[in-house]
């Protein structure tokens, strides 16, 4: 039996996003996020309930500052104690898996979606998606972009404005465009923390 466009999308194969099923699901996410982004700031529990229904996985401890945007929602899997600042964008055509204790700065974008380099298949409407994985205890600085297929290791810091095109290992600081590792994180970094971390 031939795969649906949604099955192709999640499997990382070329697919057409104009398929009716996908268009309906994106429209549903837009409607939910319209409510989310336009609620009064005090309506935290109501906002979180919207995301709990939309996302593939959440816990009781997460906070995403509105406005927030995503394509589908069901491909987003949040670990515990997650925080994202304003203007968080997730193109979740493939799974986006985020570990525990992750912090996301303002204007960060996670892009699982990609398009052919050659214009002919791109114009014909073909696209693809590759999963993104972010490990535990990661901090991603403002205006960073995470590209399709990238894995970021645990305890790592991604500097603001970085464009991450390749996997980043555990326990490092990585910055730049394209993003690259500049050093490992070690115990001397505790000197820049409050005293109770020493």
TrEMBL record:
CDD domains: LbH_MAT_GAT. It comes from the Bacteria. InterPro entries: Hexapep, Hexapep_transf_CS, LacA-like, Mac_dom, Trimer_LpxA-like_sf. SUPFAM superfamilies: Trimeric LpxA-like enzymes. PROSITE patterns: HEXAPEP_TRANSFERASES. Residues 6-60 form the Maltose/galactoside acetyltransferase domain. It is an enzyme of class 2 (transferase). GO terms for molecular function: galactoside O-acetyltransferase activity. Keywords: Acyltransferase, Repeat, Transferase. The keyword Transferase applies. Gene3D superfamilies: Hexapeptide repeat proteins. Its EC number is 2.3.1.-. The keyword Repeat applies. Transmembrane segments: none annotated. Pfam families: Hexapep, Hexapep_2, Mac. Belongs to the transferase hexapeptide repeat family. This is Acetyltransferase. It comes from Sphingobacterium gobiense.
